[in-house]
Amino acid sequence: xxxxxxxxxxxxxxxxxxxxxxxxxxxxxxxxxxxxxxxxxxxxxxxxxxxxxxxxxxxxxxxxxxxxxxxxxxxxxxxxxxxxxxxxxxxxxxxxxxxxxxxxxxxxxxxxxxxxxxxxxxxxxxxxxxxxxxxxxxxxxxxxxxxxxxxxxxxxxxxxxxxxxxxxxxxxxxxxxxxxxxxxxxxxxxxxxxxxxxxxxxxxxxxxxxxxxxxxxxxxxxxxxxxxxxxxxxxxxxxxxxxxxxxxxxxxxxxxxxxxxxxxxxxxxxxxxxxxxxxxxxxxxxxxxxxxxxxxxx
Length: 298
Ligand code: NAP
Hints:
Number of helices: 14
Bound molecules: NADP nicotinamide-adenine-dinucleotide phosphate
Mean pLDDT: 97
């Protein structure tokens, strides 16, 4: 049994913290909005009153918050992890953030006597709920080994992809692939509907051929029923498209399709769809096609 602190009990963090408690670890969870700690408490964990309270006795500190400034604040903010955790604690950042920020935070962690691995995940809410996440890990090999029991409790495909920041680079590539897939699937649905095809039947057969994908399996119902409850919010995917397009630019390579989808994601946000699941990219295709059935009002 390990003492684990878990900061950020949102759509992903909450079920992950619950799995860790169910695996027998002693889990102290902190969430800014306190009522989100209830599932963890129901699973035998403790609701901490602050980040400092959560990390005080922790051997491992897990973080799952939205963006680079949030992780920076959780770790380096006044009275937070670097100021309050036990020397030598291992920090696992599951959040999807900028690779360069991760590298800088890993350096700061080391300077403060901690170890940090970046461990962004893929698999969506379903992956978190079913403890079936793909976890792409950047950091030192021995830190990866030390974090492995935590990864095993929340994930299925767990790969050490390289030094600090590498996990975030792989996650940026993941987000490029997923966004392009969702956009293509959205366009296919609007196209099929324009011809009056039985879209449910069409997606069933498409799912069995080369067009099949996890995106199709996981997102087709959202698209058929036009229900875009998150899941993964468009606002977060917009953040990730910013990460991949700027990292590609810095590396001197081009991501033309990624840049286009980044613009379409930005359009979805500008049209008020930021809080919807990223399968809501479909609404943008409808807006552009003049076939919109799901306006902001309904
Ligand atoms: P979420 O549901 O919005 O949860 C984020 C959590 O972080 C919330 O509990 C929020 O607290 C907390 N938080 C936000 N800013 C904070 C801050 N500055 N300090 C402390 N806590 C803060 O988001 P999510 O979907 O779980 O996503 C979390 C991370 O996982 C993101 O980096 C995302 O890109 C990545 N991810 C998500 C999915 C997915 O399908 N959802 C899949 C893979 C990866 P409040 O409750 O007070 O707002």
